[in-house]
Structures are given as C-alpha cells and as structure tokens.
Amino acid sequence: MKALSAKEFAAAEAAKRKPSTILIGDGNHSLATAKSCWENLKTQPGIDKEKHPARYALVELQNLHDDGVVFEPIHRILEGAKPDDIQSTLETAWGCKATPFVSPQPIHSVVL
C-alpha cells in the first residue's frame, strides 16, 4: 500500500494536482448519464428516493497504479477525411441531422 501511495503522490506532483484517494474515469459517460437520469427522475411525484433502483449505479473500481492493470486510451483517428463528408455519412447512416452546440456546451464535450 505504501508503494502505491508513493506512486499516487508522484503522479499528482507531476500533474500539478493534489493526491487523490479515488479518481473517476467515466470513459463512456455512463456514470454521468446515470446521475443525470436519477436527478430528473427523482423530481417526479411518487418516486421512492431512498429505494428506487435508479438511485444506484454499478461501478468498477481499479487501482490505477497497479502495474498489472494497464489502461490504454481509445483514439478515433480519421486521416484524409473531410469533416463535412464524415458528418453527412453519419447523419445518413443514423437517420438524423446534427445540430451545433450552443453555449454552454456540456462539461464532457469536445467541440472543434
């Protein structure tokens, strides 16, 4: 445990942040989505705010400093493609029309 603690202190120092007990990486935003759904649902009349299943989320905890667990980023890189062509292809495939973000953008979004 002491070695892992040292790794977190070193990582925090390198990133110029405070050491953390728990870091949450919500790669698919499922935890954020679950929380948003619960926040909306709990305002509805008749919802049992103590026992409703939407109040809870299943998560997996991993030790980010364990050398046996390697996390790799997921990159989606398209080379030589035109953004308008990509958007048009996706809109056709998904049967929808994209609309631009308006301020403020969702906190987890990347707008180019």
Structural account:
- The chain has 112 residues and is an all-alpha fold.
- Helix content is 33%, strand content 0%.
- It is built from three helices and no strands.
- It has helices spanning 2-14, 30-41, 83-94.
- The radius of gyration is 20 Å and the shape is flat.
- The termini are far apart.
- The relative contact order is 0.09.
- By DSSP (H or I, 4+ residues per run), the number of helices equals 3
Strand-residue proportion: under 5%
How far apart, in Å, are the first and last alpha carbons? Answer: 41 Å
Report the uncertain regions: none
Give the strand tally.
0
Backbone structural class: mainly alpha
Question: Averaging pLDDT over every residue, what do you get?
Answer: 81
Task: Indicate the overall shape.
Answer: flat
The radius of gyration is 20 Å
Helix and strand sequence: HHH
Largest sheet: none
Helix content: 25-40%
Keywords:
single chain; 112 residues; mainly alpha; 3 helices; flat
Lay out the secondary structure:
Layout: H1 2-14, H2 30-41, H3 83-94
Briefly summarize what is shown.
By secondary structure, the protein is mainly α.
